Amino acid sequence: MKNQTIADDAVKLCSYALGSGDMYYSEEEKRNVFIGGDAQNGFRIWGQLVDIENAPPIGLDEILLEDALTCEVPGHLNESERMGKIFATHFGTAVANHIIKRMPGETVNTIADLSLQCILRSLNTTWRVKELNGGKQYQLDHCPLCAAAERIGVPEVEMAHHALHTLLQSMAHTIDPALTVQQPSSRHDEHTFAIAA
Length: 197
Fold this sequence. Notes:
With 197 residues, this protein is α+β, with helices and mostly antiparallel strands. It has helices spanning 60-71, 77-102, 108-122, 144-152, 158-175, and strands at residues 11-18, 29-38, 42-49, 128-132, 135-139, 180-182, 192-196. The chain contains five helices and seven strands. Strands 4-5-7-6 form a four-stranded antiparallel sheet. Strand 4 (128-132) and strand 5 form a beta hairpin. It is globular, with a radius of gyration of 16 Å. The chain starts with 10 loop residues before the first strand and ends with a strand.
C-alpha cells in the first residue's frame, strides 16, 4: 500500500488485536482501522498499528488476512467463522454509515457505488467497469486476497474470503436492505463485483 498518513478527515472504524487465535490467546499488538477521503477523490480504508511509530499502514487485503489469522481457533471451525463474521459485519456497517454520513441527499445507487469502489480501492487492486442497466459491474483480473496472501506468505485465505463476502453483504444491507451484492462465490470464480437494487 502507498504511504498513508492519518489525515485530518480520517475516521476510526474499528480496532482488532493481533496474535494467535488459539485457546491460550494473548493480545500482542493492536491495529486501528481508518477510513478517509471523499466522493471526488475516492474513499479508502487502511490499518495502522497502535503505539508503534513509523509502522507502515496496510490495506484492506492485509487487514482481512490478519483478522482471519487472529480469529482462527485450531480445531474449532465454527467458533473461528463466528468470530470472523462478527468482525466483518461490524466493519461493513461502519463503512456504509461513514459514507452515508458524508453523502447526505445522494441516491442509494450512488452511495452503493462509492462504497464498493472504496472496498476495491482498499484491497489494492485495479478493475474494469462495465455499465449495466441502473448500475456498474467491476471486473478484476485476479483475486486481491490471494495476491496479498502470496505476497506476505500467508497460506490460508478462505476465512478472509468469507469475511469479504460478509463485509459486502453487511455494507449493502446497511445502505438499503433491497440491495443485492454480486461477488465471486469462491476464489476460483471470475472476480466480478456489483451492488444494485
